[in-house]
Automatic annotation (TrEMBL), chain A:
The gene is LOC107479220. Coiled coil: none annotated. The lineage of its organism: Eukaryota, Viridiplantae, Streptophyta, Embryophyta, Tracheophyta. This is ALA-interacting subunit. InterPro entries: CDC50/LEM3_fam. It comes from Arachis duranensis. Keywords: Membrane, Transmembrane, Transmembrane helix. One of its GO terms (cellular component) is plasma membrane.
From TrEMBL, chain B:
ATP binds at residues 381-383, 459, 500, 524, 556, 636-638, 727, 733, 755-756. The chain crosses the membrane at residues 44-61, 268-290, 818-839, 894-915, 953-977, 989-1010. One of its GO terms (cellular component) is plasma membrane. This is Phospholipid-transporting ATPase. It is a multi-pass membrane protein. It catalyses: ATP + H2O + phospholipidSide 1 = ADP + phosphate + phospholipidSide 2. Residues 778-1017 form the P-type ATPase C-terminal domain. Residues 99-161 form the P-type ATPase A domain. Keywords: ATP-binding, Magnesium, Membrane, Metal-binding, Nucleotide-binding, Translocase, Transmembrane, Transmembrane helix. Pfam families: Cation_ATPase (PF13246), E1-E2_ATPase (PF00122), PhoLip_ATPase_C (PF16212), PhoLip_ATPase_N (PF16209). Gene3D superfamilies: Calcium-transporting ATPase, cytoplasmic domain N, Calcium-transporting ATPase, cytoplasmic transduction domain A, HAD superfamily/HAD-like. Its cofactor is Mg(2+).
Length: 348, 1105
């Protein structure tokens, strides 16, 4: 073994490139060497303060705009479930609602606070109604809604899957409990035209509910839930059902009933003739009738405005606090930091 | 228990003992699936997922499609099973290679070539020169007339010098032909792993010898994996075979290693599990109460009056399933994936390629990269690990003249060359001693080159050097040595050899100069063994200086001396020597005494200095890693002096007065105990002083310390940052690792030889150097690197990044799962506590699998600090060691963040989408979009360096989210038909998203900025410095530390460091194991104090995190 040449050859080898070593550039090489060019953002006071300031400047105007939009919406909310019960039956609401012999007719008078421009949306609102209950949400069969009896596996509709031998069409709790209060509107002497077409999503009408599926055995069972359906109308035209079957995520929800397609002036009085059929009494629910115009943001909802203003103000405050901190207590970055390993020892 | 081996008995014994098949396999084809499944299911997390998956098969309670759990689960299991199978197959292949190697074995009296696996106990195995020994053999014959043979045991104990083995006296002189027919019995112990003992007896059957029992020792054996060297042939009887050989017994099955981080993640998972159970119980009870009070009134839900008997369980189980995503199934996949990538980064790293041999680094174990960042103790082998294991003659001092001082290489020193050519008598005599005063055997290769076979590398180096200086030792035939000097051939006749022993520390040769018939005594040895015996009147001051100077440079020194003997003096002494050599009692001592009588009055010629060159960058590496708070122990099979010398030269220990080296020694138990106690006492006192205290212990004393005074030794181990253990056996090395592990330290063992294998397997992390002693260590190790200096990069760069990345990744995985889970929980409060899932199956599965997993995976490219900065400021590793980036307090931060974000998302979505917009699918998608946006910004905010891939992953993932959902919205059959198109057209959707992002991120940004600026951690400070071009960066361009610094003065830094770091890292170190342990008195109370102190510390930490 020649030691001397051994050592010198090692020196030599170090200078030379290794054979077979791949090119030292190229994205793949850089990736393998964890050497991809990278940008390393730094949280400097300037950028951070500017960011917060900018957010403030965005959110405060945004809040004002959305508040304005929300305020431009005119909304009439009328809770009718209590008022519609005759005085003498108020102590026993359940009797009132379950007894078919008692007339469910009821009139409400709504005063229009501001002029409302068409279209005016009519919603019914239910409070404390859990359309999102697990047992309820699951109890439907989308295939049956679209294809009718062709699809017989209605086990998901438990506990209302069949009546007799045949599956109920449409099966399940949701359909069974369809809302069935009705409203008629008149202003002064003339009846207000309510458009009840196109209240459901077009996509639902066309693709989710069958055109040749008829609710032939609906609400025939011993248990009567909500409304009945016209057995001669295909499901795709049963728009109230379609609306109802878009379950709400919250226990308070509004569902579209129809549209009034004429303007209403301020101080008009609208008379609502309603049939108070739906049982919201047994579980302490509330039923409300809502008339509302709409803005680019949708219905009346102050939340956007308030939240934006809050966040905007918060960001402004933060940026001011940081600015003050920075002015009062400037910290040069990376300042002779190597003092820190040793010098700081005395301070900390 | 005894084993009786019948030599050359073809029939018996076959069934009694195993054959020579080596098996390292874990599985067989049959037991693979059950065993592998069993192993996988022994992990808590897997059991949990299996339970959840099974529960989901029950449609009454499942909120989502069971495929969303089964799919990933089966995938995960398949992946890890495949990996195991692949590894096992490779083990099988390498076993097969060893098993099918062909060896000569006597069968039915005839030598046959058979496969190694067919060797049976009792077979006679023939070995040729350079053969590997296939199993443990008792020698019965050798080509050497004296019955000697030489073996190399590097694979076993890492010592590269040749060892002599001798055939037992009973077999002495048996004819080669008769060896085939030899019969007899060997009585030996049952297989064990002690490679230093073999207490057996042999009795040969007639006609060979009468019934005398011949005792056998380890000297009569050659063990599996050794190599036969310098011996034409040897043969022996197989006594232990297969996995029962001494090597096989000591191999042990490596346990799968679990990183500290995995343990922490498991712990956090456990905590989350408990939390989940609590949530489930609370919600379950609430749900049942709500059902009984409210839901019964709600006619539209149509609850039956009487449910099935398990009715009470349904709601809790539903919540269990709903909350099961709290423990993300994706974390295991993600972690496996990124760990694989960490390993690949190590493999790919060109800065860790050994340029000399073109060996890249290799991560065999892909699962433990994070542990590298948490190493607290490094246990290193010396030879071949710290040093190159190449001895090179560097300098010499002849008669007071120093050669090689200018250029560091005496062979190139013009003055020396000149002195040689001019034939200066002192120099010539010096060279002669270098060339022949040894036990080296020169052999001529076919090409005419002279090869030297030396037992010691030092002798080899000296002979080589002499040959370079034209004193070529070229032939040794019998007692005649032939040396060629400048074309003239000189002959010497060896009269006596006074062998080297570790007590005498010198060896001498008495020889007759055939040219003039003079009798000469040539000696070489350690300075303390030569200089005191110098001729009266000779000034040895020069030599002492030379020795000191050389030792200071870390060179191994030998003094050379000679004198002429008078004929009568020699005769007289020769008789005594012969007599001493034939004594039976105390022979070694007697011989030494006789040698002493002649080795005096020497003419000291000079000093040689041999370098066992330290590998490049070893002192710097040790220094840097020291600064990073890592403690070093050196475990070596080498002599104490050499070990200390190397330790000094590589900054391992500091010389006096800065450092202090305490020695634990003693021949008896009592001496060791006293010594240990003394050292312990000193340690306790000096820990407060800024002194680099280390202790040195040898294998003998260590044996007592480990077996009888374990407690005291453990305390010592805790107190001492540095230790040198010499003459330790492989199993002692492993025991030392065990001791440190038992104190909960993260240990890394690094070595290059077969003797390090056990330590490597035992340690939390095993690193093998693929060096000159073969690849055995590298194969057993978790990581193999080409050079010691790569350890710096392995730990500081790869280990640290891996730790940081996994810390982020794992906590983030919990964050995102908790986020969506909290939203589900909140939603259950407004859905009658009935266990409705707000999100649909597709979204839930995609959320875990795509939306949130992809962006975070690119965090494997994240670098909080550049590599250069980390290497310049290794102290930053403290953050990893102390586990400051992943601990209950940081986790609590992430937990809080997910709770906060869930509140933000939930409140904004239900308020923005109230009343007429409260359609279930829409609200669900708004909330989901909010989560996706928030998580994108969270990843972005936690990313320290954006490469193109990060941008792609984070923002591309957002785009992907919309793309996927648009696709689903375009399918009429899907539940969310048209939903996403609807939403994207609504200004309120975008405003909601905007609000969620702003409300979710601005407090986090504010807190982060505040901490970063006003309560910066050291990492932050370095980041600021690095990115804004602070003073460090300008300094930092000097990459490795300037060379002069490495000299002895540097040690001051490492010494003062412990003093400094305590105050600097007060909060940090209090939960770092070092600090707590160091401060506590006895070794066993810190376990409690550690656990007690850990909780308050974590809360303190969160300020800094």
């Amino acid at each position: 073994m020649d030691l001397d040449s051994g050592t010198s050859s090692t020196v030599g080898a170090r200078v030379q490139a290794i054979p077979g070593r791949p090119a030292q550039h190229g994205a793949l090489y850089q990736f393998k060497q964890q050497n991809l060019p990278a940008c390393k953002p730094v949280l400097t006071p300037a950028t951070v303060i500017a960011t917060f300031l900018l957010m403030g400047f965005i959110f405060i105007p945004l809040g004002l705009i959305t508040l304005r939009a929300s305020n431009s919406v005119v909304e009439i909310v009328d809770r009718y479930d209590i008022e519609c019960i005759p005085e003498e039956l108020r102590s026993n609401k359940l009797l009132y609602i379950t007894d078919d012999s008692i007339s469910k007719n009821c009139s409400r008078f709504l005063k229009v606070p501001k002029s409302m421009r068409a279209p005016i949306y009519i919603y019914y609102q239910l409070d404390n109604y859990y359309q999102n209950h697990r047992r309820y949400v699951k109890s439907r069969n989308d295939k049956q809604l679209l294809h009718g009896l062709g699809d017989n596996s209605t086990s998901s509709c438990i506990p209302l899957e069949s009546s007799g031998d045949l599956p109920i069409v449409p099966c399940g709790l949701i359909a069974w409990s369809v809302f069935n209060d009705t409203f008629k509107f008149s202003s002064g002497s003339s009846e207000l035209k309510v458009n009840r077409k196109n209240i459901a999503w077009k996509s639902d009408r066309n693709h989710k509910f069958g055109k040749d599926v008829y609710p032939f055995n609906f609400q025939n069972g011993p248990l009567i839930g909500g409304g009945k359906l016209d057995p001669n109308t295909p499901l795709s035209d049963q728009e109230d059902l379609i609306v109802w079957m878009r379950t709400a995520a919250l226990p308070s929800f509004r569902k579209l009933y129809g549209r009034i397609e004429e303007d209403l002036d301020a101080d008009d009085v609208i008379v609502v003739q309603l049939m108070n059929n739906y049982n919201a009494y047994s579980f302490g629910g509330k039923k409300k009738l809502v008339l509302s115009t709409s803005s680019w943001l949708g219905g009346k909802n102050d939340f956007f405005g308030v939240a934006s203003l809050f966040i905007g103000t918060f960001c402004m405050l933060i940026s001011i606090v940081f600015l003050l901190l920075h002015v009062k207590n400037p910290r040069p970055y990376g300042d002779a930091m190597y003092t820190s390993w040793n010098k700081k020892s005395s301070s900390s | 228990m005894k084993r009786y081996v019948y030599i050359n008995d073809d029939e018996s014994a076959h069934d009694l003992y195993c054959d020579n098949r080596i098996s390292n396999r874990k599985y067989t084809v049959l037991n693979f699936i059950p065993k592998n499944l069993w192993e996988q299911f022994s992990r808590f997390m897997n059991q949990y997922f299996l339970l959840i998956a099974c529960l989901q098969l029950w449609s009454l309670i499942t909120p989502v499609n069971p495929a969303s759990t089964w799919g990933p689960l089966i995938f995960i299991f398949a992946v890890s099973a495949t990996k195991e199978a692949w590894d096992d197959y490779h083990r099988y292949l390498s076993d097969k290679k060893a098993n099918e190697k062909e060896v000569w074995v006597v069968r039915n009296g005839i030598k046959k070539l058979i496969q190694a696996q067919d060797i049976h106990v009792g077979n006679i195995v023939w070995l040729r020169e350079n053969d590997e020994v296939p199993c443990d053999l008792v020698l019965i014959g050798s080509s050497d007339p004296q019955g000697l043979c030489y073996i190399e045991t590097a694979a076993m104990d890492g010592e590269t010098d040749l060892k002599t083995r001798v055939i037992p006296s009973a077999c002495m002189g048996i004819d080669v032909e008769l060896l085939h027919k030899i019969k007899g019995v060997i009585e030996c112990p049952t297989p064990n792993k002690d490679i230093r003992r073999f207490d057996a007896n042999m009795r040969l059957f007639p006609p060979f010898i009468d019934n005398d029992i011949c005792p056998l020792t380890i000297k009569n054996t050659v063990l599996q994996s050794c190599y036969l060297r310098n011996t034409e042939w040897a043969c022996g009887v197989a006594v232990y075979t297969g996995n029962e050989t001494k090597l096989g017994m000591s191999r042990g099955i490596p346990e799968p290693k679990l990183t500290a981080m995995d343990a922490m993640i498991d712990k956090l998972t456990g905590a989350i599990f408990v939390f989940q159970i609590v949530v489930v119980m609370v919600l379950g009870i609430a749900g049942n109460v709500w059902k009984d009070t409210e839901a019964k009134k709600q006619w539209y839900v149509l609850y039956p009056d009487k449910g099935p008997w398990y009715e009470l369980l349904i709601i809790p189980l539903r919540f269990e399933l709903l909350c099961s995503i709290m423990i993300p199934i994706s974390i295991k996949v993600s972690l496996d994936l990124v760990k694989g990538l960490y390993a690949k980064f190590i493999d790919w790293d060109h800065r860790m390629v050994d340029l000399e041999t073109s060996t890249p680094s290799n991560a065999t174990n892909t699962a433990i990269s994070e542990d590298l960042g948490q190493v607290e103790y490094i246990l290193t082998d010396k030879t071949g690990t710290l040093t190159e294991n190449k001895m090179i003659f560097r300098r010499c001092c002849i008669s007071g003249i120093f050669y090689g001082n200018e250029n560091g290489d005496a062979l190139k020193d013009v003055e020396l060359l000149h002195a040689v050519s001019s034939g200066s008598p002192d120099v010539v005599q010096f060279l002669t001693i270098m060339a022949i005063c040894n036990t080296v055997i020169p052999t001529q290769s076919k090409t005419g080159d002279i090869l030297y076979k030396a037992q010691s590398q030092d002798e080899d180096a000296l002979v080589q050097a002499a040959a370079h200086l034209h004193m070529v030792f070229f032939n040794k035939s019998g007692n005649i040595l032939e040396v060629k000097f400048n074309s003239s051939i000189l002959q010497y006749e060896v009269l006596e050899t006074l062998e080297f022993t570790s007590d005498r520390k010198r060896m001498s040769l008495v020889l007759r100069d055939c040219q003039n018939g003079k009798i000469l005594l040539l000696s070489k040895g350690a300075d303390e063994a030569i200089l005191p015996y110098a001729r009266t009147g000779q000034q040895t001051r020069n030599f002492i200086e030379a020795v000191e100077q050389y030792a200071h440079l870390g060179l191994r020194t030998l003094c050379l001396a000679w004198r002429e003997l008078r004929e009568d003096e020699y005769r007289e002494w020769s008789l005594m020597f012969k007599e001493a050599n034939s004594t039976l009692v105390d022979r070694e001592w007697r011989v030494a005494e006789v040698c002493q009588r002649i080795e005096h009055n020497l003419e000291v010629l000079g000093v040689t200095a041999i370098e066992d060159r330290l590998q490049d960058g070893v002192p710097e590496t040790i220094e840097t890693l020291r600064k990073a708070g890592i403690n070093f122990w050196m475990l070596t099979g080498d002599k104490q002096n050499t070990a200390i010398q190397i330790a000094l030269s590589c900054n391992f220990i500091s010389p006096e007065p800065k450092g202090q080296l305490l020695s634990i020694d003693g021949k008896t138990e009592d001496e060791v105990r006293r010594s240990l106690e003394r050292v312990l006492l000193t340690m306790r006192i000096t820990t407060s002083e800024p002194k680099d205290v280390a202790f040195v212990i040898d294998g003998w004393a260590l044996d007592f310390a480990l077996n009888h005074y374990r407690k005291a030794f453990t305390e010592l181990a805790i107190l001492s940052r540095t230790a040198i253990c010499c003459r330790v056996t492989p199993s002692q090395k492993a025991q030392l690792v065990q001791i440190l592990k038992s104190c909960d330290y993260r240990t890394l063992a690094i070595g290059d030889g077969g003797n390090d294998v056990r330590m490597i397997q035992q340690a939390d992390i095993g690193v093998g150097i693929s060096g000159r002693e073969g690849l055995q260590a590298a194969r057993a190790a978790d990581y193999s690197i080409g050079k010691f200096r790569f350890l710096k990069r392995l730990i500081l760069v790869h280990g640290r990044y891996s730790y940081n990345r996994t810390a982020f990744l794992s906590q983030y995985s919990f964050y995102k799962s908790l986020l969506i889970c909290f939203i589900q929980i909140f939603f259950s409060f407004i859905s009658g506590v009935s266990g409705t899932s707000l999100f649909n199956s597709v979204s839930l599965m995609a959320y875990n699998v795509f939306y949130t997993s992809v962006p975070v995976l690119v965090s494997v490219l994240d670098k909080d600090l550049s590599e250069e900065t980390v290497i310049q400021h290794p102290q930053i590793l403290f953050y990893c060691q102390a586990g400051r980036l992943l601990n209950p307090s940081t986790f609590a931060g992430w937990f809080g963040r997910s709770l906060f974000h869930a509140v933000v998302v939930f409140l904004i979505s239900i308020h923005a989408y109230a009343y007429d917009k409260s359609e279930m699918e829409e609200v669900s998608m708004v909330a989901l979009s909010g989560c996706i946006w928030l998580q994108a910004f969270v990843v972005a905010m936690e990313t320290n360096s954006f490469t193109i891939l990060q941008h792609l992953a984070i923002w591309g993932n957002l785009a992907g989210f919309y793309a996927i959902n648009w696709i689903f919205s375009a399918l009429p059959a899907s539940g969310m038909y048209t939903i996403m198109f609807r939403l994207c057209r609504q200004p309120s959707y975008w405003i909601s998203i905007f609000l969620m992002t702003a409300a979710g991120m601005s407090p986090i940004l504010a807190i982060k900025y505040f901490r970063y600026t006003y309560r910066p951690s050291k990492i932050n400070t370095l980041q600021q410095a690095e990115r804004l071009g602070g003073p460090i960066v300008s300094l930092g361009t000097i990459e490795p530390q300037p060379r002069p610094l490495i000299e002895k003065d540097v040690s001051t830094l490492s010494i003062t460091q412990p003093k400094n770091r305590n105050p600097v890292y007060e909060p940090l170190l209090s939960d770092s194991p070092n600090a707590t342990r160091r401060s506590s008195g006895t070794p066993f109370d810190f376990f409690q104090s550690q656990s007690r102190s850990s909780l308050p510390n974590y809360s303190r930490n969160c300020k800094d995190n």
